[in-house]
């Protein structure tokens, strides 16, 4: 007879899920590991110039050297600090304005044209203005990252609210929901899955903007490592910084995706066979 113990049942459920998560990670590593091994072999055979394109083993040695000198952690923490605050500011502003323009037509007519015009400005164009206003310290760097995060969050949330099924809104009005109840009980749950996608898009763009931000006179950070590698002719340092950007970006996206999955676990969405 099958056990009816809830603890045992829960363990049985978590086991396959954990195994599936591990399997997904392993499959996801197949391509990058395979490319790294192929790159290493081509470099060992002399097909690829190791002077301009160092093999993965040399990049790992560079990371090990930076870590042994105690500077790697400082660079990583400096970039994470800027990214954290830039993401929070940009996501908060994008959420507030996206919700306002999505819910209130007057706010949309008043704000959206200007925001759409600002969205067309290249990110690098903000750099001299931010330096002029705020100097070359941390404030302009954080603000530049916030600009990058803001627009995907704003556009996604405003669009998600505008695309909520009108029938759901009419049901809320039938039940005499006020504006706040309508937002809390209908618009927010309906827009949440798309909003989380917008947050992930803003996070990814924030990682792109952090490079431009750290070109603004930074003395620490992964962007500084890129510039330092370029100025001193060390491609291994450049590639090591790029690798760290990729790893940190992926880990932060995984964390945000996991949080989003918990928030929308009620959603019965499409899952392909084998997913």
TrEMBL record:
Q: Kindly give the InterPro entries that the UniProt entry links to this protein.
A: MetI-like, MetI-like_sf
Question: Which PROSITE patterns does this one have?
Answer: ABC_TM1
What is the native source organism of this protein? Inquilinus limosus
Q: Where is the ABC transmembrane type-1 domain?
A: 76-256
Q: What is the name of the protein in this document? A: ABC transporter permease
* Sorted UniProt keywords: Cell membrane, Membrane, Transmembrane, Transmembrane helix, Transport
Q: How does it sit in the membrane?
A: Multi-pass membrane protein
What's its job?
Probably part of an ABC transporter complex. Probably responsible for the translocation of the substrate across the membrane.
Family designation: Belongs to the binding-protein-dependent transport system permease family.
Recorded hits in Pfam families, A to Z, give:
BPD_transp_1 (PF00528)
Q: Which residues cross the membrane?
A: 21-48, 83-106, 118-136, 142-162, 205-227, 239-261
